[in-house]
Specification:
Layout: E1 13-15, E2 27-29, E3 34-39, E4 42-47, E5 53-58, E6 64-69, E7 85-90, E8 94-99, E9 104-110, E10 118-121, E11 131-136, E12 140-145, E13 150-156, E14 161-166, E15 174-178, E16 182-185, E17 199-203, E18 232-233, E19 249-252, E20 259-264, E21 267-272, E22 277-283, E23 291-296, E24 302-307, E25 312-317, E26 341-346, E27 358-363, E28 370-375, E29 380-389, E30 409-410, E31 413-414, H1 427-430, E32 448-459, E33 467-471, E34 486-491, E35 495-500, E36 505-511, E37 517-524, E38 527-533, E39 544-550, E40 555-558, E41 570-575, E42 581-586, E43 592-595, E44 600-604, E45 614-617, H2 623-639, H3 650-668, E46 675-681, E47 687-693, E48 696-703, E49 712-718, E50 721-726, E51 730-735, E52 740-745, E53 751-756, E54 764-769, E55 772-777, E56 782-788, E57 797-804, E58 807-812, E59 817-821, H4 848-859, H5 880-891, H6 895-901, H7 908-919, H8 922-937, H9 949-955, H10 968-984, H11 989-1001, H12 1005-1013, H13 1022-1034, H14 1039-1054, H15 1058-1067, H16 1078-1092, H17 1099-1108, H18 1112-1121, H19 1125-1138, H20 1149-1168, H21 1172-1181, ...
Antiparallel strand pairs: 1-59, 2-3, 3-4, 4-5, 6-7, 7-8, 8-9, 10-11, 11-12, 12-13, 14-15, 15-16, 16-17, 17-18, 19-20, 20-21, 21-22, 23-24, 24-25, 25-26, 27-28, 28-29, 29-32, 30-31, 33-34, 34-35, 35-36, 37-38, 38-39, 39-40, 41-42, 42-43, 43-44, 45-46, 46-47, 47-48, 49-50, 50-51, 51-52, 53-54, ...
Protein name: WD repeat-containing protein 11
Keywords: Cell projection, Cytoplasm, Cytoplasmic vesicle, Cytoskeleton, Golgi apparatus, Nucleus, Phosphoprotein, Repeat, WD repeat
InterPro entries: Beta-prop_WDR11_1st, Beta-prop_WDR11_2nd, TPR_WDR11, WD40/YVTN_repeat-like_dom_sf, WD40_repeat_CS, WD40_repeat_dom_sf, WD40_rpt, WDR11
Length: about 1200
């Protein structure tokens, strides 16, 4: 065993480069923490934390136009583990669903041969996670089962569909952006295609951006923003309006219900879909940079915007304190008319050129605190949001932007000032909730400004082709201690990139030349020669640059000194095997021979020296090997062991004997100063053999041309084999030892290059043609593998070389460099086999049992009474390799996260939330967010943190993105703010009527009466509205009037007039809407029953509703019935800690039975994971239900001790 370890294992991989225009929108950031993007026909997967390439998927035959990670909103267990599933779609209409970790295609889908416009995984069904909705041009939407590739249904529409967006609050609502307008579909279901053509609307948008003045300070100045009449209309707009063709993007806001944004180059419109009216406009001033893309956030009402200069900005909605009245007082005469989004931070722009422009942006879906920009040149820039706290006094009040408050809670629970927290964990941990109108913020929290502060990761691609590639000298026993597998890549802009092929990372970028690099030759493991030629002038002369580069220092010297201006272009350079001599071949100028060590010229050949078409140095190294060869040759000649071969022609045998004589002649003199030989061919195909020793160059032999070969283009020589390739695609194999020659016509046109593989006795050879490449075994003289452009691959090959003795390197015109096995098949690999320079946190790469065991290990700290991230202390009897992988994952966590996980004050609920973020587990994240909020606020006992619960309820409500799961009072305030905004925007009677209805439901009777009285006399509803106004003002709390109204309302509801009936009930405080708690809870409980029914099957949503109602024991029961044993056990633990479920064995038999059943089942599932210590822990908590399991778990220990 060697005392040192050197990593020179090179796995098959692809180095990717610039992207194609089709790849513009092909990028996605998954819940798994990985970013996937399309590069030509490849799909590249990178880690968002360390910006390392983890996988390159190759199977598409055309450019990739869309990639989408599968969602993670399901319960993960052994049956449905954490896995990396990705769908990618290409220009030819093919969709491939990948298992990314294994690098294999699970399923291929094809409908039409046109580019897929959009694709999305369905996420709302508990039953199926395999459904994929795709737009197949021009106008079809198709639902696929992505597991089997079967088509479930297909539906066509009248217009060309450009993209679609699902309503995050109601998955049956789907909106299509078409070339003509927008189509709203309200009956989307996985079971059957939508019924009708959908509701089609047109957008009429203004020519110029609206006046966008700053909101006046609190001076009660004139209205700040003009009313913008941007309406959604049913009629087609007239020609003078800009049609929807300008609309770049359509998306629902995930932060609040029924809001949608439309993106135009110079403005973003926020629409309220209840009234089909613009309620907010973000416009760019005339000198500003237009928008390219926008991503609305879920956790806060914010927008990540990408601009044409590559700058990413974050805009957050401004909150207005005390602007709207919340009681029936006189309303503010000048209420705010728009939702205003303030620019909170921006990152640096990139330098945009013809070839370099921003393509697309993606945002981290788990934490929403980072954005990645994909640039057309193949760069991926990852910007992370960092928060900086500033004092109230030091803040510049003249900026006109309201302050952002830091949140009260961390990981769902209010924390004390001194407690450990990670302020930048996620967007909702950076920005506190914006104050709902009419509420003053408490004095407590510190102000906090948010900045997109610095670039955390950068992944650069290869520059655009052409490429000249050369692998460094091979690994030998002598250089094993210092060897690094380095590949030099010469580029069209004159720089040389050196890649380390173990990691696939750029080792050095050297700016060596001023024009395109044509060839590279290594002179040692740490230095190389490269040459470049400028474009020829009208005389055909160029500037030749030949540089000698020292890699460790980056120093580069002009090898030929002052020579190089206005001369014939260099065709090739060849360094001898001992790295002593260099032959420089020109197009129309005699050969030059140089001494590499001293950079001096040995010989410039005379004018009448033949033109060189191909040249190769002999591998004869030193005298020792030469003598052996000499003896063998003499013996062979003496015994005359020449085999009779039908293919052996008289000419060829004489050629070989001449060549052998030449070698033996040159070896007669015993001077050991390294003497080397080279052969070259001229235009006629004549082979010359020359000897170089010191500064003498001797012409040793000439061999007449072979009649069967055309003009020779390249020569390769290794051991006793010499191979010649010609213009017509013939390969000629010469066995110098056996004096046999064989000509093989490959019928592949011009042989561009031939190279032998490294390694003693390895006689494999790669040949490059205009249309591909072949690997040959020269011993057997037969082809090993072949690659042909247009047939098995779409790219054209630019250069080839050997990477190791069994792997080849191909540079291609799609801007990629591939390291392939000798079979030259595609390059997907298993991600767990890859050598990475930095450790990557991605539990998805572990085997399913291990990733779930790791999760349990993190959740149930402390083990054996101590908080530790060292898994070796834990009784987990898996094999050592898996244990090491788990430890590697734990070690790759950031120090901040480790500190939190090891903090004894970090509560179980916070731990559950943090682990769900670490795992990117969507379903757990939503469950624990809602659970933490309601467990904390309904806790009878105050938890360890010294915060008063009642105050938290006011200051720390559940975020409005959880919609009806929020507290009633908070939800009503939000709705009121929304109605006030709608009211300002009123433009039609229908719009006013909707506002009136909402105001009545919210108990704002005075304002509702005012609106009812506005109805004009010629309106058909005039009489009805006037009567309603009278009714609203005269309703008293007297018994008879209440009972009459109740009777009328009941009749109305029974006869299908639901909205009107509910309004009447609201007037007398009998409806669930206006009446807090009790009625509301009854309605929601019925809804839970509906969600749990088999036809709806949305039990996970029902769980969240039960949590918001405080029905904690029902939640535990439902979790157990759904077999979510891990979540159920953790939830029961949390409930017991907070005292919301109190059980003892004698008081509450039912509760105790449920809890012990949950613990026992969880112990069994941990046993199945092989996590023994965890299983023992929960089996012992389960009491009688777990006693058998406990005995079973402890029995092997007894057996061991007896032995």
């Amino acid at each position: 065993m060697l005392p040192f370890t050197v990593n020179f294992k090179v796995s098959a991989r692809t180095l990717t480069g610039a992207l194609n225009a089709h790849n513009k929108a092909a990028v996605d950031w998954g819940w798994q923490g990985l970013i996937a993007y399309g590069c030509h026909s490849l799909v590249v997967v990178i880690d968002s934390n360390t910006a390392q390439t983890l996988q390159v998927l190759e199977k598409h035959k055309a450019d990739v136009v869309k990639v989408k990670w599968a969602r993670e909103n399901y319960h993960h267990n052994i049956g449905s583990p954490y896995s990396l599933r990705l769908a990618s779609a290409d220009v030819n209409g093919k969709i491939i669903v990948w298992d990314v970790a294994a690098g294999v295609a699970q399923c291929e889908i094809q409908e039409h041969a046109k580019p897929i416009q959009d694709v999305q995984w369905l996420w709302n069904q508990d039953a199926s996670r395999d459904l994929l909705l795709a737009i197949h041009p021009p106008n079809y939407i198709v639902l696929w089962n992505a597991d089997t590739g079967t088509k479930l249904w297909k539906k066509s529409y009248a217009d060309n569909i450009l993209s679609f967006s699902f309503d995050p609050f109601d998955p049956s609502h789907l909106t299509l952006l078409t070339s003509e307008g927008i189509v709203f579909i309200s009956d989307f279901s996985p079971a059957k295609p939508p019924s009708g053509p959908g509701k089609k609307v047109y957008i009429s948008s203004p020519h110029s951006s609206p006046a966008h003045n700053k909101l006046a300070a609190a001076t009660g100045a004139k209205k700040a923003l003009n009313k913008v009449k941007i309406l959604i209309t049913q009629e087609k707009p007239s020609a003078e309006f800009i049609t929807l063709n300008d609309c770049l993007q359509l998306a629902y806001l995930p932060s609040k219900r029924n809001h949608m944004l439309l993106l135009y180059p110079r403005e973003i419109l926020i629409l309220d879909l209840e009234v089909n009216q613009t309620v907010g406009v973000i416009a760019i001033e005339r000198t500003g940079v237009p928008f390219l893309q926008v991503i609305p956030c879920f956790q806060r009402d914010g927008l990540f915007c990408l601009h044409e200069n590559g700058c990413i900005t974050l805009r957050v909605r401004r909150s207005y304190n005390s602007i709207f009245t919340t009681s029936n007082e006189e309303p503010d005469p000048d209420p705010v008319q728009e939702l205003t989004y303030d620019l909170r931070s921006q990152c640096d722009a990139i330098r945009v050129t013809k070839t370099v422009r921003p393509f697309s942006m993606v945002c981290c879906p788990v934490n929403e605190n980072a954005a990645a920009l994909v640039v057309s040149d193949g760069r991926v820039m990852i910007w992370e949001l960092k928060s900086a706290v500033c004092n109230r006094s030091s803040r510049n009040s003249s900026s006109g932007v309201s302050p952002l408050y830091s949140p009260v809670s961390f990981c769902g629970i209010p924390v004390g000032v001194l407690q450990n927290k990670l302020p930048d964990l996620s967007l909702d941990n950076m920005i506190g909730q914006s104050a709902i109108a009419g509420e003053e913020h408490p004095e407590g929290p510190v102000l906090q400004e948010v900045h997109l502060r610095f670039l955390t990761g950068l992944l650069s691609g290869l520059p655009s082709p052409q490429f000249a590639i050369r692998m460094c000298p091979p690994l030998t026993t002598k250089n094993i201690k210092v060897y690094q597998p380095l590949l030099a890549v010469g580029t069209s802009n004159g720089s040389v990139l050196v890649y380390h092929l173990t990691s696939g990372l750029l080792h050095k970028e050297l700016s060596v030349h001023s024009c395109e690099v044509k060839g590279i030759e290594w002179t040692s493991l740490t230095g190389f020669l490269s040459f470049a030629t400028s474009t020829p002038n009208n005389m055909g002369l160029v500037r030749n640059e030949l540089q000698l580069v020292d890699l460790p220092t980056g120093r580069s010297i002009a090898f030929r000194g002052e020579r190089g201006n206005d001369e014939s272009p260099i065709e090739m350079i060849k360094v001898s095997h001992l790295k002593q001599y260099l032959a420089v071949v020109f197009k129309d100028k005699p050969l030059e021979l140089w001494d590499v060590r001293t950079c001096t010229i040995l010989r410039e050949m005379s004018k009448n020296f033949p033109a060189v078409t191909a040249l190769e140095w002999s591998p004869s190294h030193n005298l020792k090997s030469l003598r052996k060869k000499q003896l063998a040759t003499r013996e062979a000649m003496a015994r005359q062991t020449v085999v009779s071969d039908t293919e052996l022609s008289v000419v060829e045998s004489s050629v070989i004997s001449l060549l052998q004589e030449a070698e033996s002649k040159s070896e007669l003199s015993q001077n050991i100063s390294a003497r080397e030989h080279f052969v070259f061919t001229d235009n006629d195909g004549q082979v010359y053999h020359l000897t170089v020793e010191g500064n003498s160059v001797k012409d040793s032999a000439r061999i007449p041309p072979d009649g069967s070969m055309g003009s020779i283009t390249c020569i390769a020589w290794k051991g006793d084999t010499l191979v010649l390739g010609d213009m017509d695609g013939n390969l000629n194999f010469w066995d110098l030892k056996g004096r046999v020659s064989r000509g093989i016509p490959t019928h592949r046109s011009w042989v561009r290059k031939i190279r032998f593989a490294p390694g003693k006795g390895n006689q494999k050879l790669i040949a490059m043609y205009s249309d591909g490449a072949e690997v040959w075994d020269t011993k057997e003289v037969q082809m090993v593998s072949s690659l042909r452009s247009g047939r098995n691959v779409t790219f054209r090959i630019l250069d080839v070389d050997w990477c190791t003795s069994d792997k080849v390197i191909l540079a291609s015109d799609d801007g990629c460099i591939r390291v392939l096995e000798m079979s030259m098949k595609s390059t997907c690999f298993r991600m767990d086999e890859q050598e990475l320079t930095e450790p990557v946190w991605c539990p998805y790469l572990l085997i399913p049992r291990a990733s779930l065991a790791l999760k349990a290990f993190l959740l149930h700290q402390p083990w054996n009474g101590q908080y530790s991230l060292d898994i070796s202390h834990v009784d987990y009897p898996e094999n050592e390799e898996i244990k090491n992988l788990l430890q590697e994952q734990l070690n790759s966590l950031s120090n901040d996260i480790k500190k939190l996980l090891l903090d004894p004050e970090f509560t179980l609920l916070q731990r559950c939330l943090l682990v769900s973020r670490l795992y990117g587990d969507e379903s757990e994240l939503h469950f624990w967010t809602v659970a933490a909020h309601y467990l904390h606020s309904s806790s009878p006992r105050s938890p360890a943190v010294g915060e008063a619960a009642p105050r938290d309820k006011v200051n720390n409500p559940l975020d409005i993105c959880y919609d009806i799961l929020c507290e009633n009072a908070y939800f009503q305030k939000f709705q009121l703010e929304r109605v006030n905004l709608q009211e300002v925007k009123r433009s039609t009677y229908d719009h006013t009527r909707k506002c009136t209805d909402q105001l009545l439901l919210l108990g704002q009777t005075d304002r509702a009466v005012q609106l009812l009285l506005e109805t004009s006399a010629d309106n058909q509803h005039y009489y009805c509205d006037s009567l309603k106004a009278c009714l609203v003002t005269t309703v008293t709390s007297s018994g008879p009037s209440q009972s009459t109204i109740k009777l009328v309302a009941t009749n109305m509801i029974a006869n299908g007039k639901l909205a009107e009936g509910v309004q009447l009930l609201c007037l007398i405080d009998k409806a669930a809407v206006g009446h807090p708690r009790r009625c509301c809870a009854d309605v929601l409980k019925r809804w839970v029953d509906h969600l749990c029914s088999p036809q709806v099957n949305q039990k996970s949503k029902a769980l969240l509703v039960l949590l918001s109602l405080g029905c904690f024991s029902s939640v535990a029961e439902t979790l157990h019935s759904m077999r979510y044993f891990d979540r159920a056990a953790l939830f029961v633990e949390a409930c017991l800690k907070y005292g919301v479920i109190q059980v003892t064995e004698d008081t509450d038999i039912l509760h105790w039975k449920l809890i012990s059943a949950i613990y026992a089942d969880y112990a069994r599932s941990l046993k199945n994971l092989g996590f023994k210590q965890g299983a023992v822990l929960f089996a012992s908590k389960a009491g009688a239900a777990g006693s058998d399991l406990l005995k079973e778990l402890e029995s092997p220990k007894l057996e061991r001790t007896e032995e």
